[in-house]
Amino acid sequence: MKERKNKRGFGPLLRVGDVVTWRDGWGVEPPKQVRVTAIKVTFLPRSKEGIPAKEVPWFVVNQNKVIVDLDTGGEYSKWAYGFQISPAQEVAK
Predict the structure, then answer these.
(1) DSSP-derived secondary structure for 17-34
(2) What is the mean pLDDT of residues 1-30?
């Protein structure tokens, strides 16, 4: 995965449309590759309300100050806190 930085130098970015690794069931299910369909930045960790954003630095995700909507390929869309996602890893064949 190519590391993308914004113009202000905040490090790698998570953007709407990115593929991430996600664990359902509050992190106990096997990892799955999913696509981010929306991002909300929160003021407090694990808050359920936030401000919509198109991109956010990964350090904010790691502080657990985001909520993301996910396309899991299933019948229903899912959402996750920042601690439940990580940058997509290459899948070994």
Answers:
(1) T-EEEE-HHHHTSPPEEE
(2) 78
pLDDT digit string (tens) for 41-63?
A: 999 998 889 999 999 999 999 99
Contact 79, 69 (CB under 8 A): yes
- Residue 70: which CATH number? 2.30.30.140
Which domain range does residue 20 map to? 15-87
Q: Is residue 80 part of a domain?
A: yes
Q: Are strands 66-71 and 32-41 parallel, antiparallel or unpaired?
A: antiparallel
Q: Is 80 helix (H, G, I), strand (E, B) or coil?
A: strand
Q: The pTM is what?
A: 0.82
